[in-house]
Amino acid sequence: xxxxxxxxxxxxxxxxxxxxxxxxxxxxxxxxxxxxxxxxxxxxxxxxxxxxxxxxxxxxxxxxxxxxxxxxxxxxxxxxxxxxxxxxxxxxxxxxxxxxxxxxxxxxxxxxxxxxxxxxxxxxxxxxxxxxxxxxxxxxxxxxxxxxxxxxxxxxxxxxxxxxxxxxxxxxxxxxxxxxxxxxxxxxxxxxxxxxxxxxxxxxxxxxxxxxxxxxxxxxxxxxxxxxxxxxxxxxxxxxxxxxxxxxxxxxxxxxxxxxxxxxxxxxxxxxxxxxxxxxxxxxxxxxxxxxxxxxxxxxxxxxxxxxxxxxxxxxxxxxxxxxxxxxxxxxxxxxxxxxxxxxxxxxxxxxxxxxxxxxxxxxxxxxxxxxxxxxxxxxxxxxxxxxxxxxxxxxxxxxxxxx
Length: 404
Ligand SMILES: *Cc1c(COP(=O)(O)O)cnc(C)c1O
Known about the structure:
The chain is an alpha/beta fold. The chain has helices at 4-9, 36-49, 59-79, 93-103, 126-135, 152-158, 181-190, 210-213, 238-243, 278-294, 296-315, 342-351, 364-370, 386-403, and strands spanning 17-18, 21-22, 24-25, 87-90, 113-117, 138-142, 163-169, 194-198, 217-221, 232-236, 254-257, 262-264, 320-323, 332-337, 354-355, 357-359, 375-379.
C-alpha cells in the first residue's frame, strides 16, 4: 500500500485552495496532476539545455537530443515495445489516431470495413468517419449493454474478411469500463485486420505490454499519466510503421530533398516532422519514471479501493443513478441525480473546492444510448483519499438539497 500522504507532498497543486476550500481534484480522467519531479524536469530543461535536437553539433543540442532519445527508450520499455523506433512522439492520443487513420487511406477501398466500439471518445469516431469518406469503406459498431460493456457476441457477427481495421479504447473515459482488448485483438487478427487500441485511460492505471497484446498500434497521452500536455505516444509494429506513409511533410522527416523527389527518413523520424515538443517528450519520460517509482499494480489496487468506497457512499443518495456498472472498471464514476441537471451539481461542488466533470465527456453516443444529456463524472487518481470522497459525497448531498 503506497503512502498516500507522502505521495500528496509530490503534487504542489494539491495544497491550493479553490473558493476558500482545499482543492479536491476528481477530474483525473480529463487530465492528471503533475508531480514536482516532472515540473523540475521541465524547469531543468529550460534552465540548462534548451536547444533544438538532432541537428546541432553544439553541446546543448547534443544534451537535449540525448535526453529526448532517452525518454523514447523509457516509453519503449514501459510499454514493452521491441524497438525504440516503434515509439513515435505525438502531441497526444488524438494526433496518434489521426496519423494512423490518415495513413490507412492508401490501404482501403470501397467495401472494406472498419469496426469501432460504441464506447468511443469523439477523437476515435471522427477520424474513422473521415477515412470512410475518403475511401468508401464502411464503419461498423460493436454495440454496448446497459452496464456499459461491449456486447462481444455482436462483434463476432460483424467481423468478416472485409474487416481491415478494428479500433477500440482500452478503457472508456466516460464510464470507466475496461474493454476485453485481448479478445478484440485476437479475433481481428483471425481475419487479418489491424487493430489500434486507444490507451489514453488505460496507461495511467494498468501495465501495458504491447508485445503480449500483439496489438498493431497503441496510443496514449502524457497529460493523463502525470506528464505535461501536448505530448503523447504512438506505438506501431515496425512492419506497419514502415508501410504507413508519412503524416506531415517538413524538416526532420526527410532523408534527401530535391525539387523532383524527396526520400523519407527512417523510423521514427519519418513521422516526426518539424521541431517536436522536446521538453514535453523529456518530461513524459520523467512522468513514466514517477509512475514506476510507485508501481502501477499498487496504484491500481488503491484506486480500486477508492472506487468501491465512493460507489457505496454515492449509492446511498436517493435518486442517484450510476452509469457504467461493469465488474471490470477503473476509478471513474459517472452519475446523475433524478430531476437535477449534471451541470448544476458540478457548479455547486465547485463552489466547495471540488473539481468534477459534467457533460457528455466527448462520448455522445454513450449518452444517446442512456437517453441522457450528460453525467457528473468523478474520476480518482492514486493521490486522492477517502476523506476527499467523504467531502465530495457530502457536497453532492448539499447540492441535492439546494436543487430539489
Ligand atoms: C482523453 C482521451 C482521448 C483524447 O486524448 P487527447 O490527449 O485529448 O488527445 C482519447 N481517448 C480517450 C479514451 C481519452 O480518454
